[in-house]
Amino acid sequence: MESTATLGWVDYLVIVLMLCVSTSIGIYYRLTGGRQRTTEEYYAANKSMNFLPIGMALMVSFMSAVTLLGVSSENYRFGTQFVVINISYFIGTPIVCYGFLPVFFKLQATSAYEYLEKRFGVAARLTASFIYWVQLLLYSGVVLYAPALALEATTGLSKNLSIIIIGLVCAFYSSVGGIKAVLITDLFQGILMFVAVFVVIATAAYNVGGLSEIWRIAQTGDRIQFDNFSLDPTVRHTYWSLIIGGLFTFLSLYGVNQVQVQRLLTVRSLRSARLALWLNWPILTALSIMTSFSGLAIYSKYYNCDPVKEGRISLYDMLMPLYVMDTLSHLPGIPGLFVAGIFSAGLSSISAALNSLSAVSLEDYIKPLYRKIKDEEFPDSMSLYTGKILAFIFGLLCIAVAFLAQYLGGVLQASLTIFGVVGGPLLGIFTLGMLCESASQRGAITGVMTALVFSFWIAFGQPRPAPPTLPVSTYGCDTKELISDISNMLQNVAALTRNEESPYLNEEYSYFYLYRISYMWYCPIGFAITFVIGLLVSWIGIMMCGRDDAKDPDLFFPVIANRMRNREIQEPLSPYEMSRKYEFSVDSNKSDKSSTKL
Questions:
Q1: Alpha carbon 554 to chain centroid distance?
Q2: Confidence of residue 591 (pLDDT cuts 50, 70, 90)
Q3: How far apart are CA 286 and CA 366, in angstroms?
Q4: What does the pLDDT read at residue 310?
Q5: Which of 246, 215, 243 is nearest to 229 (CA)?
Q6: Which of 429, 561, 58 is nearest to 261 (CA)?
Q7: For residue 59, what pLDDT is reported?
Q8: How far is it, in rounded angstroms, from Cα 588 to Cα 593?
Q9: Cα angle 456, 462, 464; round to 5
Q10: Which of 144-153, 276-285, 396-405, 476-485 has the lowest mean pLDDT?
C-alpha cells in the first residue's frame, strides 16, 4: 500500500498566513469605519457594499468547501450527470431577480422573516424563522465537517479534533467580524477556491498528457454520463431531478434564504442587487463545472487503484486532498495553499451563517420577547453585544452538529438534503404569501409544518439503500489487493450462474419506496406540500369566515402587485376597506421604523 505524504512546515506556514489574512480583514473592519457600533453596520454594512464583492460572496456562501470536496467526489464515483444542475442556476437567476428580490428590497428588514409577519402574522414569522434556524445550523455543521476531512487526509490529524479546532476559530471569527468583513473575506477566499481547483486540473493534465487524456480515461471508466432522462424519481440523478430539483433548491437558497437576502441588502439599490445576482451566475457555474472536471482529473490517477478500496482513506470526500498530497507534496507550500483554500472556504461560509443566525435570533426572538416583557424597545446599546454573543454560541452548536454530519452520506448529498428538506417548505411559505392573495396565516403554518414533517420522514427514515456507484478497480494496487478484487468478482459471477442475487449487486427494490426517492426531489416535494395544503386550508377558512382585509401590494411579486393596483383603480375600495388599509399601512410604517431603529 502506498504511503500518504503529510504537510511540511512550509505548508503549515502558508496555512497560517492565509488564515491571518482572513482574520486580519475581520479585525480591520472591526477597528475602522463605524467600528461596528451599530447593528446596521454589523448586519447590513450600512448599505455601502459594491455589487462586485457581493457577486462573489453569493457564490462562496452556496459552494464553500462542500463543493471542492463533494462535487469532485460526486463525479469520481457517479459520473458527470450532476453537471446538468447548472441549467437550473440559469433558469432560477431571473426568477429571483424579478420576483423575490424586489419584495425584500422594499421591505429592507434585517430579518427576511419580518416579511411573513407583515403578510401573515407573528406566528408565521416565528415558525419559519425557527425552521430556518434548524436548516442553517445543520448546514453549518456539514460545512465545518468538510475542512476537517481535508485536514485528516493531509495531516493525519483526527477529524474530530479538527472539528473542534476549526469550530472554535469560526466561533471567534464570526463574533468579531461583521457582515462587511465577511463579504470582503469571501472575495479573497473565493479566489483561493478557484486556485485550488485549477491546481488539481493542471497537475492531472500535466501528469497524464493533457485534458483530452483525462477525458479519454473518464470515458473508458464510464464516467462521462449526460444521457439519463429517466422519469423514475428513485433514480438518483436525471435531467428532470437535477433541473427541477436544482431549480427549487436554488430558489430556496437565493430567493428566500436569510444568508443571501441579507447579503443582497448590503447594496444601496435594487439595480446593484440584481447585478450582483447576474454576476454570481457565471462565477457559480464556472466553479461548478471546474470542480466537476477536477473529479475526472482525480479519477485519471486512481482509476486502476481506488484509494478507498485500498484502505488509504476512509471516505471518498477525502479524495481531493489525498490527490494533492500524492502529486504535489514534493513542492513545499502548494499542498498548504490547497488546504488553506478549503479551510478558508469553510470558515467564510460558517461565519456568514453564524452572522445570519445571530441576526434572525435577535430580530425574531429576543427583541420581540423583550418588548413583550418590558413593554419597551430592546436597548440599542445591548443589540450589538447580544448579537456577537449569539454568533459565538451558534459557533459552538455547529461543532456538535458537525459530529453528526459523517452519518449523512457524503458532504455534497448531506448539504443538498438539508437544503431540500428545510428549504422546500420555506420556499413554499414565502411563495404562497407573495403569489396568492387568498393565502392566510393558518393555511401557511399548516402547510409548512406538514411539509416539514413529511420531508424529514422521507429524507431520514431508515433503513434506506446505499446509492449505486460506478465500478472502481484495485487492479493497479499491490498483489494482495488484486487477489481480493478478483475473489470478489468470482463470487459475483458464481452467484449469477446459480441464478442467485449477488451480495455485491444493488438490492434497493427491497426498501420502502419513499426512502428510495432521490434527494434532489426533496425540495420540490416540500414546496408542493406547503403550497397546496396552505392554499386549501386558506380557501376553507375563506368559505367559513369570509375574506381577510385588503393586502399591501408591496408584499407580492411585482406582477401580482401591479394587477392588485390596477384592480383598485378599476374597483375603488369601500370606506371600511380604505380605513383598514390605512391602519395596516400605519402599522407597517411603525414596524419598519422600529425594526430599523439604530
A1: 28
A2: very low
A3: 41
A4: 86
A5: 243
A6: 58
A7: 85
A8: 9
A9: 105
A10: 476-485
Q: Is the distance from CB of 347 to CB of 170 less than 8 angstroms?
A: yes
Length of the chain, in residues:
598
Which three cell numbers, joined as nine digits, stand for 351?
A: 461565519
CA distance 353 to 350: 5
Residue 411 CA to its chain's centroid (Å): 11
Lowest mean pLDDT among 76-85, 117-126, 210-219, 470-479: 470-479
Kindly report the three-state secondary structure assignment for every residue of 118-162: HHCCHHHHHHHHHHHHHHHHHHHHHHHHHHHHHHHHHHCCCHHHH
Residue 158 to residue 559: CA distance in whole angstroms: 54
Query: What is this structure's pTM?
Result: 0.84
C-alpha cell recorded at residue 206: 500535466
- 262: CB partners within 8 A, 6+ apart: 43, 44, 110, 112, 179, 355, 356, 359
Alpha-carbon gap, residue 332 to 106, rounded angstroms: 52
Residues 64 and 349: beta-carbon distance below 8 Å:
yes
Q: What is the pLDDT of residues 208-261, one digit of tens each?
A: 999 999 999 999 999 998 989 999 999 989 999 999 999 999 999 899 988 888
**H helix count then E strand count, the chain:** 25, 0
Contact status, residue 430 vs residue 255, Cβ threshold 8 Å:
yes
CB 434: neighbour CB atoms within 10 A?
A: 23
**506 close to 410: Cβ distance less than 8 angstroms:** no
Q: What is the mean pLDDT of the chain?
A: 80
Question: CA 246 to CA 150: how far, in whole Å?
Answer: 27
Amino acid in the structure at residue 522:
Y
Q: Could you tell me the pLDDT band of residue 3, with boundaries at 50, 70 and 90?
A: low
Contact 14, 173 (CB under 8 A): no
Enter the CATH code of domain 9-29+48-408+506-511. 1.20.1730.10
Categorize the per-residue pLDDT at 579 as very low, low, confident or very high, splitting at 50, 70 and 90.
low
* Amino acid identity at 325: M
Contact 317, 224 (CB under 8 A): no
**Three cell numbers, residue 575:** 370606506
Under a CB-based contact definition with an 8 Å cutoff, are residues 149 and 159 in contact? yes
Residue whose entry in the numeric block shows the C-alpha cell 457524503 = 410
CA atoms of 108 and 101, how far apart (whole Å): 11
Cell 468547501, located at residue: 65
* Residue-level pLDDT at 556: 93
- Closest C-alpha among 219, 267, 274 to residue 95: 274
Rounded distance between C-alpha atoms, residue 276 and residue 264, angstroms: 8
Name the residue with cell 450582483. 276
pLDDT tens-digit series, residues 473-499:
888 786 444 445 554 554 444 444 444
Question: Which segments of 433-497 are extended strands (E)?
Answer: none
User: CA 62 to CA 50: how far, in whole Å?
Assistant: 19
- What distance in Å separates the CA atoms of residue 4 and residue 119, rounded to the nearest whole number? 57
Here the cell at position 491 is: 463470487
pLDDT of res. 44: 61
SS (H, E, C) 38-72: CHHHHHHHHHCCCHHHHHHHHHHHHHHHHHHHHHH
Domain-by-domain residue ranges, the chain?
A: 9-29+48-408+506-511
Q: Tell me which residue has cell 392573495.
A: 437
